[in-house]
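Action item from last meeting closed. Structure (302 res):
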């Protein structure tokens, strides 16, 4: 696994929206803060899109914008403004020849899980699952989650702690960290972008899903074998869940517990990686150690 060079003051960060549309007023604060941190910002064409539909441009426009940032060796990191939906429509058309020669940090989460997984599986290059532009708004750039992004790109090693959860499965494990949005991780099964999970620490999060759909996606992971030989499992935030008119009959934590009880590796519930504010930066592909005990959980970068 190759680790891209960490950033230093004066480096250029390319900013793109390779999936959903984002109005400028939603990303301007992020640009301002990153410039105050000493970075130069290069805006892609999708950041000022004139699109009138869901996407930040046509497939061809979004592809060209992201491709330009991947190819430009003067761009030292690619910061995705938002996720939404759209990476899966262009991932197979992207060319990574120059990116392979000059790897750089790809930053984002949600739909950007597709890009993280593809880069991990096909190129064996680390990337950064982390807050995106909207997380900087309303003074939130000062919170520990956005600050963890800034620390990560500087090369600081992370150590994250959380309180114990009654369903935690205790133990200690090490392995490369992989994961992201559950819907996308399950959607990629059967494609050449799907994560390999043997001996990995897998982390999952999601937002706005029906409870039965979370159950279905976890069963898909289980049936595919992705959960069998993990080193450990981290369950993040599953927020804004919905239930059917006739109740599913289990809450989100019981869905996980019932499906995961058979596994003997450490499992951490409620880790702060999510679509909400609580979203620590995680280096995908980098070796980590997870400790789960009576005092809580510690995830530390090796």
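Sequence:
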């Amino acid at each position: 696994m190759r680790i891209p060079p960490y950033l230093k003051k004066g480096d250029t960060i390319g900013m793109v929206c390779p999936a959903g549309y984002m109005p400028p007023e939603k990303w301007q604060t992020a640009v301002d803060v990153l410039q105050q941190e000493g970075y130069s910002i290069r805006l892609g064409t999708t950041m000022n899109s004139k699109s009138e539909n869901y996407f930040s441009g046509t497939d061809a426009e979004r592809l060209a914008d992201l491709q330009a940032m991947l190819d430009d060796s003067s761009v030292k990191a690619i910061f995705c403004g938002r996720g939404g939906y759209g990476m899966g429509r262009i991932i197979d058309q992207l060319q990574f020849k120059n990116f392979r020669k000059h790897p750089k940090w790809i930053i984002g989460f949600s739909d950007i899980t597709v890009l993280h997984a593809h880069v991990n599986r096909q190129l064996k290059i680390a990337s950064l699952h982390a807050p995106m532009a909207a997380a900087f708004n309303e003074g939130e750039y000062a919170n520990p989650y956005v600050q963890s992004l800034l620390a990560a790109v500087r090369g600081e090693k992370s150590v994250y702690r959380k309180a114990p959860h009654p369903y935690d499965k205790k133990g200690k494990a090490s392995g490369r960290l992989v994961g992201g949005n559950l819907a996308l991780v399950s959607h990629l099964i059967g494609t050449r972008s799907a994560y390999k999970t043997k001996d990995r620490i897998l982390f999952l999060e999601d937002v706005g899903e029906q409870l039965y759909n979370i159950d279905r996606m976890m069963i898909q992971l289980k049936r595919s074998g992705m959960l069998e030989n993990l080193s450990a499992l981290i369950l993040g935030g599953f927020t804004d869940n919905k239930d059917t008119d006739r109740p599913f009959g289990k809450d989100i934590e019981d869905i996980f517990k019932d499906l995961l009880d058979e596994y003997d590796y450490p499992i951490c519930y409620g880790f702060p990686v999510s679509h909400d504010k609580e979203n620590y930066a995680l280096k995908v592909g980098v070796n980590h150690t997870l400790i789960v005990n009576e005092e809580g959980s510690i995830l530390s970068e090796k």
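Note appended to the action item: The chain has a mean pLDDT of 98.
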